[in-house]
Amino acid sequence: MNPGSLAVAAWRGCAQTFGRPRLLLPVSTLKVQTCLQSSERVPAARLPYRVKVSSEKRYAWCACGHSQKQPFCDGAHKTKAPSIAPLRFTPEKSKAVMLCACKETKNPPYCDGSHFKVIFQDIKKSVKGIFKS
Ligand code: FES
Fold it and tell me: Where is the Iron-binding zinc finger CDGSH type domain (predicted)?
């Protein structure tokens, strides 16, 4: 399953659980985080996290989106998404970085702008829903 269809599947799961998506953007973090019935990757948020990292520390970036300590792993994948392991990394330099929260980046754990695609898909679905009813 490619990342795009994975995001759509996760979104459909949330929409079935919580009703039709609204035009309010970004989607509330609470709503996204409470959609934990999925055993697949879910977006933790629609925008990246700005985090100061140290080159002397090793980090575990949450790849499944279920962690309550975003953008880092809290072990939630063990029960919520056992097939998705966190990405362990040590930054080359100590500096502030943008870590992906939408979980669609092609350059994990760093944001590559893929969240715009996720936001665009949200808008497209919301607009489609308005004109259907
Ligand atoms: S937050 Fe995921 S690519 Fe930007």
Answer: 46-83, 84-121
Give yes or no for residue 15 having a pLDDT over 50: no
Q: Domain span at residue 110?
A: 49-131
Which tokens is 8 given? 């759509």
Using the Cα atoms of residue 61, residue 83, residue 65 and residue 26 in order, give the sign of their dihedral.
positive
pTM exceeds 0.85 for this model: no
For residue 43, being part of any structural domain is answered with no
Kindly state whether residue 44 falls inside one of the protein's structural domains.
no
Ligand 1 atom with the shortest distance to the CA of 99: 1
Distance from residue 44's CA to the centre of ligand 1 (Å):
10
43-56 mean pLDDT: 96
Determine the distance separating the centroid of ligand 1 and the alpha carbon of 102, expressed in angstroms: 5
Alpha carbon of 133 to ligand 1 centroid (Å):
32
In a domain, 108, yes or no: yes
Nearest to 13 by CA among 28, 25, 31: 31
pLDDT digits (tens, 9 = 90+) for 58-96: 999 999 999 999 999 999 999 999 999 999 999 999 999
Q: Please tell me whether residue 132 adopts helix, strand or coil conformation.
A: helix
